[in-house]
Specification:
11 strands, alpha/beta, 315 residues, Alpha-Beta Plaits
């Protein structure tokens, strides 16, 4: 089997204007996508993103999507490639759907905005005390035992993301968070970021139904123009219905990045290009140990654009 290159659209981590604003102003690919976004949304996205005070606000999510697609534009032109495979773990599914031509960029933006509002409405009254905690360097077997113990005590506790062999996302009540993180430290694990609102848990089946009814039902989704790998289990997504299911699965099924990696390897992928504001997926051991990784992110792009031009001696 010949080697292949895949685009990876990363999941969304904490993001704000101070980290990516300069990139969005300077990068020509992003400026073009921002113009499209402003026309689709009916307002200046950059202004609203600047005023946003939340890492996961509606406008932060929209900016993340714009940046991910713009960096894919840049990567394709810079590297002279046409990847035929893509994957988008977690929030990255939205960018993957655009790149695979299952949705127009404009529709994906509008659906992202409406989904953000739908989630905000849901979590304003349901699971108001629930968070998703990331943990690193944590033995899987011991973590699963801890989750089972909490479930046996009647606590809501689910693994929402299998990111690597020792890196996980866990959804639980905030009242149980201190005891949970203490137990993780006791197994030499490392609690990291606490996400609000929470994500990817079976408990959120009602959110999935709400989003499907109020948002997804109004948008057209087409068959993908290239191979899409689902982040929940590595299945190949090759029809419009399968794309819709993948996008809805993100509400109540955990991410399984190692399974997606295995699927990419089975497709002959040896090189992945990670396009977006990412500090996780390009660094995970299951990514770096199996692929050559090229990253296009806002910080490195700004450094390249603003680097001083040196003139060779004697020129």
């Amino acid at each position: 089997m010949s080697s292949a290159t895949a685009l990876v659209f990363p999941g969304m981590g904490p993001s704000n204007f101070s980290e990516v604003g300069k990139f969005m102003v300077l990068d020509p690919y992003t400026r073009r996508r921002l113009q499209e976004a402003d026309e689709a949304l009916g307002y200046r996205l950059l202004d609203r993103f600047y005023a946003s005070d939340s890492d996961y606000s509606e406008y932060t999510q929209l900016a993340f999507l714009v940046n991910s697609i713009a960096l894919a534009d840049r990567s394709v032109e810079t590297l002279g490639m046409r990847p035929e495979i893509c994957v988008g773990p977690s929030f990255g599914q939205k960018a993957a759907a655009v790149y695979a031509e299952t949705m127009s960029f404009s529709d994906a933006l509008r659906m992202t905005a409406e989904t953000a509002r739908c989630e905000a409405e849901f979590f304003a009254t349901e699971y108001t005390d629930t968070v998703t905690q990331s943990v690193a360097r944590t033995p899987r077997a011991q973590l699963e035992e801890l989750v089972a113990e909490l479930n046996d005590r009647g606590e809501l506790c689910e693994i929402s993301g299998y990111m690597d062999s020792t890196f996980f996302l866990v959804t639980l009540r905030e009242s149980a968070l201190d005891g949970f993180t203490a137990a993780v430290r006791a197994m030499n694990g490392h609690p990291m970021y606490t996400m609000r609102p929470p994500v990817h848990a079976r408990a959120f089946a009602a959110l999935r139904a709400k989003a499907e009814r109020e948002v997804f039902s109004r948008y057209r989704i087409d068959d993908p123009a290239l191979t899409v790998v689902a982040d929940q289990d590595g299945r190949i997504v090759d029809t419009a219905d399968a794309v819709r299911t993948m996008l809805l699965d993100t509400f109540d099924r955990p991410v399984d990045w190692p399974a997606a990696v295995d699927a990419l390897r089975g497709l002959g992928v040896e090189h992945v290009v990670v396009t977006g504001p990412d500090n996780l997926f390009r660094r995970l051991a299951c990514t770096t140990s199996h692929f050559q990784v090229t990253a296009f992110d806002p910080k490195s792009t700004v450094r390249r654009m603003t680097a001083p031009v040196t003139t060779p001696a004697g020129a």
